[in-house]
Design brief:
By secondary structure, this protein is α+β, with helices and mostly antiparallel strands. 46% of the residues lie in helices and 19% in strands. It has five domains: 6-140, HPT domain (Four Helix Bundle (Hemerythrin (Met), subunit A), Up-down Bundle); 171-288, Histidine kinase CheA-like, P2 response regulator-binding domain (Alpha-Beta Plaits, 2-Layer Sandwich), CATH 3.30.70; 336-395; 398-577, Heat Shock Protein 90, CATH 3.30.565; 582-717, CheA-289, Domain 4 (OB fold (Dihydrolipoamide Acetyltransferase, E2P), Beta Barrel). The strands form five sheets. Strands 14-18-19-17-16-15 form a six-stranded mixed sheet. A hairpin with a 2-residue loop joins strand 16 and strand 17.
């Protein structure tokens, strides 16, 4: 599609994906309870109505056609308060199929691929099901479209004298404030007044939002969701198509929404106020409902007369409720802009460090200039606050990704004939959007692996003392310096003997079988092309999946830990950084080289004596700290750095820790804490697999020099 409406396309894709995700959530929840409740039926109908309208507006015919037929189906379901129990399961299957079809078509739009041209078979399936549940064979050929408000007739051109007469009538009996209306709107308002629409709101949309007709369409849908579509009307009418005259009318004169009932107006005002694209609105002289006056209630009659008299003395303009700016709480921002903003903040952090470092170098002590020291501290504070705000903007909850796993578990349970329950823990845990997008695929593979390989079949599970319903637990936890995501199942676990035999068959063993630990054996499962399945199925057997998981997690600086106990289940744990951009680091020198150690990994630092160094049975150095023994890693030895500080008492010992291990680093000295911007290593360096040497990346320091950022887990594991 190339119709010059890129912005409209972006909005369409965003909103379509949001609606489809919501539809899937409703379907999963209803299937779990075994039926469609009234609210869910209404919401599904509204979702399909919106998808149909917006797809038709964008000229995506395949999408609009299927959405239209599903809307017809739920028009019948809604009018009949659901379907008979015997048809419920089939209705769920059709709806999941429809959701998948529309999702696939939307994905084609995103990837600039041609849409499906032949969907007749699926449309016939929907219509056939509608004919079956309605008992009307004629519906199989074409369902009656859902009722929609009839469009209002466009105002005809009028002679000046007639216009003047019309204007006078409007002033005398229209009931709406004519001064706030354009000429074309006055005639429409008089017509609506005669039809019983006594209440009017004029809405203006934010200029930057553009696509005013689409905004109006979305607003009308939101209002009808709450008030229904019988007691409201609107002008202009033709808002489902990007007609230039309609768009211009909305921009110049506003969008009119008419109400028959005051209650509907009151409920709609809240919707209009919270609508993302509303700039302001005006209630144009909300007409008062006629009241029954009782003879004995003379005080009310007197008050009413006084109010009328006061109104006659007041200027007519006071009848109109003045436009008020609407507070906007949410805004959609292109992720590329946030990436650029984060890069810019990173450069500001570096520049601020350079300025402070330069001042110290020139003056010897920043304190010699009290004003500069004060301003420098204030600058650092503001930069830190800016950095925290920008990082928080990029954080999103993992709930969206987690919820998608419900569908995977549902589909695989049906196809594999397994009873499985998915438990979600820590859905509100927040993580950087870029990282979340990267780990969505690994999480999906891990859940599929748990469903296919982990959970037993109904027959096998019945032979154990476990609950007949299997359990897959997906959890997320913020540990301070990283996010830990776990996919755990209570299935049969991993058989090390089977894995080792398969590894031997594929020629992957590099040492005698007896020397392999369980951790090393399980690691084979994440080797490319490795699978324990004897036959290829829809879900596994091709040897792809878990190797991709490992690569994707490591690509963002994370690690994968896979543990299992035969007969009890398995757990796949992803440890990933909160963000890839900026970390708090402690600078430490070894010779002329400066390393940065993530502060989150540092437990304490101390001076050690020569006698505090001991050796284990393998001759490795260990040191006692608070009655605990820790291995000692000498950085100058690991990286082959020339230094004069080699005796333990001449340098400094830093106790570092991760979730798996704690050990001590020996360095020359500490240089202070500093926030550093993580820069990826060049590709020509990465090809030597330096990450396994304990290097996570590099950073530019305040003086322009480069510091190596240490990867604490890998530093110990590979040295």
């Amino acid at each position: 599609m190339d119709n010059g409406m890129d912005n409209m396309l972006s909005v369409y894709l965003f909103e379509a994906n949001e609606l489809l995700e919501r539809l899937e959530e409703i379907l999963l929840a209803c299937e779990k309870q075994g039926s469609f409740d009234v609210d869910s039926i209404n919401e599904i109908f509204r979702i399909m109505h919106t998808v149909k309208g917006s797809s038709a507006m964008m000229q995506f015919n395949s999408l609009a056609t299927v959405a239209h037929k599903v809307e017809d189906l739920f028009f019948f379901v809604r009018d009949n308060n659901g379907v008979e129990d015997q048809y419920t399961s089939e209705l769920f299957d059709i709806m999941f199929k429809a959701n998948d079809f529309i999702k696939a078509e939307v994905e084609k739009v995103e990837n600039n691929q041609p849409l499906s041209e032949d969907n007749d078979a699926f449309v016939s399936e929907i219509l056939g099901f509608l004919a079956k549940i309605s008992g009307d064979p004629s519906k199989a050929a074409g369902a009656k479209p859902a009722a929609a408000p009839a469009p209002a007739a466009a105002p005809k051109a009028e002679e000046p004298a007639k216009k003047a007469e019309e204007s006078a009538d409007a002033q005398n009996g229209l009931g709406f404030n004519e001064e706030e209306l354009a000429e074309e709107q006055i005639a429409i308002c008089k017509t609506k007044k005669g039809e019983g629409f006594n209440h009017l709101v004029k809405v203006y949309f934010d200029e930057e939002a553009q696509m005013e007709n689409l905004r109006a369409f979305m607003l009308v849908n939101a209002i009808t969701d709450v008030c229904g579509d019988t007691g409201i009307d609107y002008y202009p009418k033709d808002i489902q198509q990007a007609v230039p005259e309609v768009v211009e009318s909305i921009v110049q004169h506003g969008f009119l929404v008419f109400f028959k009932e005051a209650d509907d107006l009151d409920k709609s005002i809240k919707i209009i106020e919270s609508f993302v694209y509303t700039k302001n609105y005006e209630i144009l002289d909300k007409a008062e409902e006629p009241k029954e006056e009782k003879a004995e209630d003379t005080s009310k009659a007197s008050d009413s007369e006084q109010n009328k008299a006061a109104a006659q003395k007041a200027p007519a303009k006071q009848n109109a409720k003045p436009a008020a700016p609407v507070k906007q709480n949410l805004i959609n921002v292109n992720l590329a802009k946030l990436d650029s903003l984060m890069d810019l903040v990173g450069e500001i952090v570096i520049t601020e460090a350079m300025v402070s470092s330069s001042a110290v170098t020139q003056n010897g002590d920043m304190g010699t200039d009290s004003n500069f020291a004060k301003h420098s501290r204030e600058l650092r504070k503001l930069v830190n606050e800016l950095q925290e705000i920008v990082m928080s903007i990029r954080l999103v909850p993992v709930s969206g990704t987690f919820q998608k796993m419900n569908r995977i578990v549902r589909d695989m349970s049906k196809k594999l004939d397994k009873d499985v329950q998915l438990e979600l823990i820590g859905e509100n845990t927040e993580i950087d959007k870029t990282i979340l997008d990267t780990i969505a695929d690994p999480i999906m593979h891990a859940v599929r692996n748990a469903m296919d390989h982990g959970i037993e079949t109904k027959e096998d599970r019945a032979k154990t003392d476990k609950d007949p319903v299997g359990k897959v637990t997906l959890s997320a936890q913020n540990t301070g310096g990283e996010i830990v995501i776990c996919v755990e199942d209570d299935g049969k676990g991993v058989d090390p003997d089977v894995i080792l035999a398969k590894a031997k068959e594929k020629g992957l063993l590099t040492k005698p079988e007896s020397e392999y630990t369980q951790k090393e054996i399980i690691a084979f499962l994440m080797s490319p092309g490795f699978s324990t399945k004897k036959a290829v199925t829809e879900f596994s057997g091709r040897g792809v999946g878990m190797d991709v998981v490992k690569k994707n997690i490591e690509k963002i600086g994370g690690t994968v830990i896979w543990t299992s106990e035969l007969g009890k289940g398995s757990k796949i744990e992803f440890k990933i950084p909160l963000t890839l951009a900026i970390v708090n680091g402690m600078k430490a020198s070894v010779g002329d080289t400066v390393f940065t150690i993530p502060v989150n990994n540092i437990k304490e630092s101390f001076k050690a004596t020569k006698g505090s160094i001991l050796h284990d049975t393998d001759g490795n150095e260990i040191i006692m700290v608070r009655q605990e023994y820790y291995p000692v890693v000498r950085l100058y030895d690991v990286f082959g750095i020339e230094t004069d500080v080699k005796e333990i008492q001449d340098g400094l010992v830093i106790l570092v820790e991760t979730r798996e291990i704690s050990y001590c680093l020996f360095v020359d000295q500490l240089l202070g804490e500093q926030q550093v911007v993580v820069k990826p290593l060049p590709n020509y360096v990465n090809k030597y697999d330096v990450k396994k040497s304990g290097i996570a990346g590099c950073a530019i320091l305040g003086d322009g020099s480069i510091s190596i950022i240490l990867d604490i887990p890998d530093l110990y594991a590979n040295n």
